[in-house]
Amino acid sequence: MHQRCPCLSGDTYSECCGRFHSGTALPPTAEWLMRSRYSAFYFGDAQYLLKTWHQLTRPEALDLDPEITWRRLDIVRTKGGGLLDSNGIVEFTAHYRVTGKAGRHNEVSRFQKVDQHWYYLDAAPPPRNVA
């Protein structure tokens, strides 16, 4: 597949997230796992999303809304999640359209590496307001 990768890395899908989706490579960092998961949402690949979800928090099934068209991924910041880390955080904004209306999903995701595999753990709790 020579189309541009939906995660907007600048590479083609086959050079980028396609290799993770096909199982020929593992995402080396939490950010790359986040990008590949976004691309899985883009293509409606629920199996990949479940496979890359940490077993402690993974749902039994995942029903993706076919009405949502994912448009763009913006990585806001990362903390940890590198080659030598075992935990990482990726804050992102995913833009979408549903029934003709634009929307966006903002999240601070937590990731954990287990046996050299990165997994999505959960969305970090929102910051507490301190008065």
TrEMBL record:
It comes from the Bacteria. Transmembrane segments: none annotated. Residues 29-123 form the YchJ-like middle NTF2-like domain. InterPro entries: NTF2-like_dom_sf (IPR032710), SEC_C_motif (IPR004027), YchJ-like (IPR023006), YchJ-like_M (IPR048469). Belongs to the UPF0225 family. This is UPF0225 protein E3T51_06780.
